[in-house]
């Protein structure tokens, strides 16, 4: 498995709104391309942070999925509504160590 961690720092007090919008509109589109392995909202440290962990079967699956990543068309109403709720986004891609592959 290959994992991509997507962390969004929302505007103050907007993490719940962002997560609700993602659940209602974003997930049904994105899960066509990747598997949701986890989702968290911060309780300490950097507050108003939502982290998603997306799983891909292997590097080939990620490579074929990422040309359309994000898989939501720019003109889709989800895009401007979600972008208004966050201010910082981080997108590292992680692979397990060779002993875990």
Automatic annotation (TrEMBL):
Residues 3-65 form the NIPSNAP domain. InterPro entries: Dimeric_a/b-barrel, NIPSNAP. Gene3D superfamilies: 3.30.70.100. SUPFAM superfamilies: Dimeric alpha+beta barrel. This is NIPSNAP protein. It comes from Allgaiera indica. The lineage of its organism: Bacteria, Pseudomonadati, Pseudomonadota, Alphaproteobacteria, Rhodobacterales.
């Amino acid at each position: 498995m290959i994992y991509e961690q997507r962390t969004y720092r929302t505007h103050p007090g907007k993490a719940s709104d962002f997560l609700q919008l993602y659940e209602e509109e974003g997930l049904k589109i994105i899960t066509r391309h990747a598997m949701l392995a986890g989702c968290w909202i911060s309780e300490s440290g950097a507050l108003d942070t939502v982290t998603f962990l997306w799983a891909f079967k292997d590097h080939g699956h990620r490579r074929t999925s990422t040309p359309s990543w994000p898989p939501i068309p720019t003109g889709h109403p989800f895009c401007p509504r979600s972008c208004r709720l966050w201010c910082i986004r981080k997108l590292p891609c992680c692979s397990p160590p060779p002993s875990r592959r």
